[in-house]
Amino acid sequence: MAGGRQRAREWLTWTIGLALLVSVVIMGLRVAIEVGAIVAGGFTPLLFNLIGSWQVVLFATLVLALALAWGRGDHLPSLRAFRRQPVRWLVGALLLLIALRVTRKGVAVNSLGLVSDAPNKTFWMDKGHPQRQPARVQPNQYGFRDSPWTSQPALGTTRVLLIGDSFVYGAGVADYEGLLHRQLARSLGQISPHQTWEVLNGGRPGWSHLSYFDAALRLMRELHPKVIVIGSLGGSDWDVFDFQQQLDLLGRRLFYVAWQVGAVTDLNELSLRSERTMCPAGEDCPRMGEPLARARLERLLAEAAASHTEVVVWEYFRPISFFAKIDAPNFHRASWPAGFEQWTDDPALAIPIDRHPTAAGNAVIASTLARILVRLVNAAPTSAEGVR
Amino acid sequence: MRRMLRRWRARAADATSLLGFLAKRRSLWLALLVALLLLLTGALYVVQTAAVAPYVYPLF
């Protein structure tokens, strides 16, 4: 009986010791990737925010606990005791697998290196909230929430490419016809029936300005739109570590490791939180990612000018000074007519919990945007091959 | 004067026994420190995750 109790105690100390060891390794890897990404991205002010984060405090605690267990001697037996103990190896491997969270789904990436939707995706934001419904998403060949895209628009068709985050993706809309790109196509057809319009949905939840300009460039080269519309949320779009930025910075393999150990979510949350600390939401103050964003936008505008493409930024909320400083003939700013900036206060137009537009909200945005686009397209010089 | 000295010695003895008590249970205090740090981690996790919860989307 005493032997059985002693064996049980030994098992318990082994399991706790192993769990500690594995946790220290995983948390160490997680924090190391985060520090590496911050330094590699050149966003060193974020290092100070990282020090006070729960991840770093947890890592320090686990190291202390491991040192304590080892110091006691009887908590962690020497590795020699591991020999000829296959069951202990199995328990160790199992703990490692749980810690690595190998059950996490991999990340879908399309042919352009952009984060994509996996086929038959169910998008369910704020699961369980009464105003939220799950949306069945059938992504196209590029992994976007749209019908399949052709490389070139049909002759005589004006192609409009929408770029944005969850607002453009349609996080608040379960019905496909209620999405912004579908409603915009209908509004454009009503306002200018003699033209053929095609609107593409290039929205990806979580993207920020840095990803908008980069993704717009990649999609423009592939899809040859006449107009690119970038839906900006202003002050909420300045996190420098959205998922796309991390994928580009770390590369696919390291991004997968970072995703498995939790560093991707950490970096995303860290950059979002830090932006809010440095510059409170709703205020228009200098942001960490601005110089890089400006360089990317200017590159996009230069390449767009060469292919006679107009770039429009649609500001969902109060216009920000960043866009006011951009000066290029093919760059245009668009927002609400005066007096309509408070559209998110209307629960019919925006979901109160997070301000995402409803299908009715998208309809209002689409009709406002359509008027601006028709004016712009009919005023702009056409390319050598005619109206696309 | 002698009484003061005796009192002071008594206090010193108290402090010595307290230090001895602490030293004897060093692992216990360190374990308590670890537990407190884990609590701090939990509190930081709740506060820091809640601060950005509306802006983090189910991506994959």
Order of helices and strands of chain A: HHHHEEEHHEHEHHHEHEH
How many domains of chain B? 1
Largest sheet of chain B: none
Tell me which protein chains meet in the greatest interface and how many residues each side has. Answer: A-B, 37 and 23 residues
A few lines on this structure:
Chain A is of the alpha/beta class. Chain A has helices at residues 2-41, 45-51, 54-72, 86-100, 166-169, 180-191, 209-223, 243-261, 263-278, 290-306, 321-324, 359-379; strands at 121-123, 135-137, 157-164, 196-203, 227-232, 310-315, 331-334.
Report on the structure:
- The complex is a heterodimer of chains A (388) and B (60).
- Chain A has 388 residues and is α/β, with parallel strands linked by helices.
- Chain A contains twelve helices and seven strands.
- In chain A, helix 11 links the parallel strand 6 and strand 7.
- In chain A, helix 1 crosses helix 9 and helix 6 packs across helix 12.
- The longest helix of chain A has 40 residues.
- The C terminus of chain A is likely disordered.
- Chain B is mainly alpha-helical and 60 residues long.
- Chain B has one domain.
- Helix content of chain B is 83%, strand content 0%.
- Chain B starts with a helix and ends in an 8-residue tail after the last helix.
- The chains are: A alpha/beta (388), B mainly alpha (60).
- At the A-B interface, helix 3 and helix 9 of A face helix 2 of B.
